[in-house]
Specification:
Length: 124
């Protein structure tokens, strides 16, 4: 089941927050840069206030066209915040250009980058 709440568009970027299969999914479209990365921080803060504990957050990068160092820093901050809460963060479906950027920066060794949401084990 997917429930979507549209985010406030920032100049050059748009964000959506939804729930899917036990995950909070933040979708990012457009450009993630100095001016738009605070919007990602805001949406991730909303995701962090979820009653789910520990938080399971996915950032869908499939519509992201550009990411500068400010955007990369926002992703790293999200990873640190969610990990500190014993949660899990995955980056979903980055476009080839973004996937290459993450790889060249060495972030794929530290961040979980996937083509789809991980399947959750059924409760025992």
């Amino acid at each position: 089941m997917m429930v979507t709440a549209a985010g406030t568009p920032a100049s050059g970027a748009d964000f959506d927050l939804s729930r899917q299969d036990g995950w909070i999914v933040v979708s990012v479209g457009g450009e993630l840069n100095l001016h738009t990365s605070p919007g990602l921080d805001d949406h991730l803060a909303q995701a962090g206030r979820s009653p789910a504990s520990p938080p399971q957050v996915a950032i869908d990068l499939s519509r992201l066209r550009f990411c500068d160092s400010s955007g990369i820093n926002a992703l790293v901050r999200a990873h640190k915040r969610i990990s500190a809460a014993d949660g899990r963060l995955v980056l979903l479906r980055p476009a080839p250009r973004i996937a290459d950027l993450l790889d060249r920066m060495g972030l794929t060794r530290h961040l979980d980058v996937r083509g789809a949401l991980p399947v959750q084990a059924a409760p025992a």
